[in-house]
Structures are given as C-alpha cells and as structure tokens.
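I am writing to request your help with a piece of structural work I have in hand. The matter concerns a single protein, recorded as an amino acid sequence and a row of backbone structure tokens. Could you please explain, in whatever detail you think fit, how the structure tokens follow from the sequence? Thank you for your consideration; the sequence and its tokens are set out here:
>
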Amino acid sequence: MNYTQLELELGVSDLLSVCADVDRRLFPAPINETFAMTLYHGSNIIVERPDLRFSVRALDFGRGFYTTTEKRQAVNFAKKVRERALRTGDNATGCFVSIYEFDEAALVSGIAVRRFATPDEEWFDFVMANRREEIPGGTDDIIIGPVANDTVYRTLIGFEAGLYSKRRAIQLLRARKLCDQWTFTSEKSLGLLRFAGSMEVTP
C-alpha cells in the first residue's frame, strides 16, 4: 500500500496523526527535555546520590553539594580532588565528573534561592564569612554565584593578609571571567537533581 492509497482510506488528518506517531517512536524526545539544565560535579569518585553529610562547611557558600554548568571547571576540580586524595592516602583516587539534570523551573516552587550575579561586595562578604565559618547556614536551599577558583583564592588571601583593601580585591575579581557554581544546601534541593551519568577524566 502506498501513501496515495492510505490518504484515500484514512484521510489527510488521520495520515498526519500516523506520521506524527512514527516520528515519536523513531525520534523520541531527548532525555533532558524536562530537565533543561545540565550540571557537573568533579570528584575522585562517581556521586550518584549526593549526601550533605560529606560536605565541608568552610567553602565559598558553606555546607552543600557544589556543581557547575561549566564542564571544564568540574574537570579541573576532579583533578584537584584526586591530587588531594593522593596526598592524604585516600584509597579512592579516581578522577570523575558526575553529570546531573536539573529542572530550573523548580526554582519558583517553594525553593529558597540566593543568587549572586557578579562578584560584588555582597558576594565578597558572604564568601569571606563562610570561609571563616561565621554563617550557620540553613536559610537557603540553593546558592548560585561565581566560583572562587585558585586565582580568586589568591585575591581573598591577599585581602586577609592586608595586601588589598576590600574595594581593590573586588576590582581585581571583577576583571576576571569567573565560572559559576550551583550549591545545593538542603535535602529538598538535592531532590531536584537527577543523576544522568558520569565521565572519567584523565588526570
């Protein structure tokens, strides 16, 4: 039976419905159609189920599970975690980037989000307070903002050592292109992540 005969028997509208059904079966929707954002986490192990019990409090945004939209940033962090594991005698000396899908629409569904668009004074004070463990946490579910990479750390350390004023330190930070980080600080927010796989990184 050719398409001309099928059109006569089913009608054009029915034919379109049949073709659409074939398209859905041959070309299914991508896995991240709903979970539109991809996030990455670098570590010495594959993290299928993030656990806040293993997080470190004195980081940029405090205790939480740290991810980024930048794969390169996650790869670099995985290498650093592996190097630290080797120095401390940790048996887990792999180098992996875990991949997650996240529905950004969930940010409006009763989730408390703190967002820093740039490394401004508010971001600077928040990061410094967390590094000093002066913020107890617990008020945010997700914290989004620039990541304090090695270059940023040197600037922060320079500020702590009195080499830079706060104003000068912020000027130096704003002059650099910083990667982002999405930190999930509650079990409720972690439930919005869906593990999508992992990739092994060459150290």
